[in-house]
Design goal:
The protein is an all-beta fold. The protein has one helix and 31 strands.
Length: 355
Amino acid sequence: MAKYVAYLGSYTNENSDGIHIFDVDTEKGTFTHRDEVTVNNPSYLTASKDKRFLYSIVDEGISAFEIEKEGYLSLLNTKWIGGLRGCYVTVDSQNRYLFIGGYHDGRVTMMSLNEDGSVNDVACGIFHEGYGISAVDQRLEPKVTCVELSPDEKYLYTVDYGIDQVIVYEIDYLRGKLEERTIIRLPLGSNPRMVRISKDNKFAYVLSEKRNKIEVYKIINEGGKLDHENIQTVSVIKEAYMTAAASALEMSGDEEYMFASVDAVNSLACLKRDVRKGTLNFEFDFRVSGDYPKFISIMPGKRFVVSLNHDSDEMVAFELNYKHKHALMRTAPIKVNQPNCLKIVKLPESDNNDK
């Protein structure tokens, strides 16, 4: 039987030591706490594709952990990222480089990895340039909120909340360099937060905080030219709400559904995806029974979705009924101080047992 563990990063200014480790029952949608690893304010986590390593944004920069046999974590090292504190991290499938987004300094950082999974030095760092506007019409400087690899890992999509752009870089793995390839420009004042890309590399989805919409782009990569055609704009709230602010975006493993969370309204929206056309259809939404759903995670099998309610200090799992278009909380919320990010990992041993 497949065995899953969950790693939850939380701020450590009150009642948390850092990364919480849970055993996960994907059939019941439950989490059982079993350990906690002390690090300073882990705000975003990512696991390597081979499930051997976990990387966390921390106050000191980036921390690398080895995922041990039963899912426990062993610290490998911590490295400075060459700029201000990061807010997002991802890793390529061959464990060559980490890619880090910096909200505070508008910087994209590429860091090399050692063979044992530990973090090496900064290979490349690029500061975004330009200005945007905030919700109160104040000037915003570059703020990178998300960095995601294209499925073929040739490109890095970097979402800049401050200048309303998604800047796409071509990755030179041999030299450890990023080269700007194209820019997706969103309407002024959109404040984009996250991007997700379909596995077939045909569609990109960008969540806008201020507009509470998902922009759907068809990816065109022909004759050596990369471009993006905006084919749809879809709202993640039923009606306008002055202080609503979209916060997180996630796609189910089979890519048939997409979920978006919205602060102030404190809701999750479920949208059905046309896998062939790439378009989205708003199906239903529901309240998360807490404040500020900062992060969402879809459990394997897409029966449950998890909301990290940051300002009410809790993790909540909801059972989804796609046919009747509603969601139910089956178990009590789990109290966690200011939760930021959740990664559910299938342990390698269970992969072997499933064969």
